Amino acid sequence: MECLQCHQKFCPHVTLKSIFSFRPLIVSQQCQLCRSQFEEISNGGCLICSKETTKDCCADCLAWQAKYPNSTFKLEPIFKYSEEMKEWIALYKFKGHRALCYCFAEEIANYFSNQHGAVVIPIPLASSRYQKRGFNQVEELLKAGSVTYKKLLNKPAQTMEQNKKSKVERLQTSQPFQLNLGAIACIRGRDIILVDDIYTTGRTMYWAVELIEQCSPKTIKGFCLAR
Ligand SMILES: [Zn+2]
Ligand SMILES: [Zn+2]
């Protein structure tokens, strides 16, 4: 197999557990050396979002709790949003190297194999973004991991693109998402997992959480590649 990042040939490490897991064999298309650049988030950080902190809850999450006091949202990220991850995201998302979605296919498949019965909802992309990029980076990550998802949210066109705004501007804009037709019935009483590629300020995720929590889910959490 060829590594999608450094293009060297490598032998994927296949465990006996994955062979006998009764699901299609999914391996990440990334060599051990490239993979070792990315640091997994360890236990012991913020109880809500896993960010490194010496307290129970990080300052970001305390601010979100003040804004959404009834929210039960929790985030389960895999990797730290390190410089290496920023570079990877830039290649994948902004330079449009779509095939890179297979770099973390196994990690994503493993995470979702333990989430039986949950409704998986990707964070949507504005259609103008989608047309420019040609793919939704979140959906591609899920497809690479053979994860079934439901597009229950959409993002109508906005005047200014999110990443061209400053952090302050991003935190102040109004709800960018809408529920799709039939979303309420799909969400009510179910375990929901919202999925995004990265989580930085939490603003994007909490806009989605706000809409989903209005539909009375049983539980709600978020998954992202990096935090
Ligand atoms: Zn490599
Ligand atoms: Zn936190």
UniProtKB/TrEMBL annotation:
Domain of life from the UniProt record: Bacteria
Span of domain Phosphoribosyltransferase: 156-226
Pfam families the UniProt entry points to: Pribosyltran
Family from the record: Belongs to the ComF/GntX family.
Protein name as annotated: ComF family protein
